[in-house]
């Protein structure tokens, strides 16, 4: 490797294996791409969240939305795992896509990042997703214009998408789901000989460590520490993905969804999700991409995503939304939503703990991380539960609970529902188009636009 050519796209090379490097301050002045990266990541979870009625004893502890005002809000037990990040997050209510408000929640995930009128039946045509609009602008700066991930993988079917990303023609972009495949795409393995050697070794890094010796002499003390931490993180992720891969490849067990499966080992399901988050983190650290989507699960139907509920002791996730009327049902769904928030928070904290090398602040300051669903309570395609984190240096002010629209200030419209029939009900409250928030996001990521999905202008106060 030629040290003089070291920049954001530099790779350690060794025995057919290449490892993308993080950004070093020692070479920042020589780097023609001197601007701090602006990053976007969207995490989607299916099946909505728990919204018991205000008079239900479960409301105080297990309703997903906070209680209170913009800054004096109280997080319930569902989201209190994010309390340490309170000043780094914003929670939104009263947002949805107008074209999907009467679409059943089993068919609404396709339009979460597009806002397209795909409908619940009949002819199907989608449009470009938010991440791909940004990828079109920033994609030339990175090795991958975007990273598209999901637990299920592939594209799925219309109105049953396995991916959140759609191109200019509205075609679904296949998502990667296997941790090993993602790892190999980020830390390139080239040629059959390299693959054979890697199969016989404990870690691909064993071939690369020696390549860092000459480099270290050119690095500052801070950069040497950065390199060591980065290599340790990659090695740790590589070890974890072996177990995570085993979990994703296991066939779906036949279980009774109404009963706890006490024989389930929750570590593997949780480990899979943590590994996916670590791969996203590493993709940002080595600047392989600046746009990532991850669909935690598809709407409607069995699949590996349904087993993520093993992490909190349940056999599958989807049945939790149908069992809220049973004793402890709201709590059970709340515990699963809590698990989702906890792992998102772990990812956010990791970004916050990682300083930006070529600029002030940390990686979270320059990253807009979004976590949400296209359903609120019981597959109702309204009042999307959305959390954002970071973006302080992009212009986002956090530590807030923002309520939009009128007539649903306590988020009780559709709450307490235990039947799918609610999705056919009349829209009795006023909500803002989610596309307006997407305009805010694109503008602060540097995209010159005042419109998304046919809606002009951003949201007030964001």
Average pLDDT rating: 85
Radius of gyration: 22 Å
Strand content: 5-15%
Strand order of the largest sheet: 6-9-3-10-11-4-12
Q: Any low-confidence stretches, pLDDT <50, length ≥5?
A: 1-9, 29-33, 252-265
Structural class by helix and strand composition: alpha/beta
Count the domains: 1
The general outline is: globular
Number of continuous helical runs: 10
Let me know the number of strands. Answer: 15
The SSE order reads: EEEHEEHEEEHHHHHEHHEEEEHEE
Share of helical residues: 25-40%
What can be said about the biggest beta sheet? 7 strands, mixed
Straight-line distance between termini: 45 Å
Pfam family, one: HXXSHH
Organism: Lentisphaera araneosa HTCC2155
InterPro entries: DUF1552, TAT_signal
Protein name: DUF1552 domain-containing protein
Walk me through the structure.
With 462 residues, the chain is α/β, with parallel strands linked by helices. It has one domain. It is 27% helix and 12% strand. The protein is built from ten helices and 15 strands. It has helices spanning 59-62, 130-138, 179-186, 192-199, 212-216, 221-249, 266-285, 318-322, 329-352, 434-444; strands at residues 11-14, 17-20, 39-44, 89-93, 95-96, 147-150, 156-157, 160-161, 291-295, 367-372, 386-390, 400-403, 432-433, 451-452, 455-456. The strands form five sheets. The chain has a seven-stranded mixed beta sheet, with helices on both faces. Helix 6 packs antiparallel against helix 7. The chain is globular. Residues 1-9, 29-33 and 252-265 have low confidence and may be disordered.
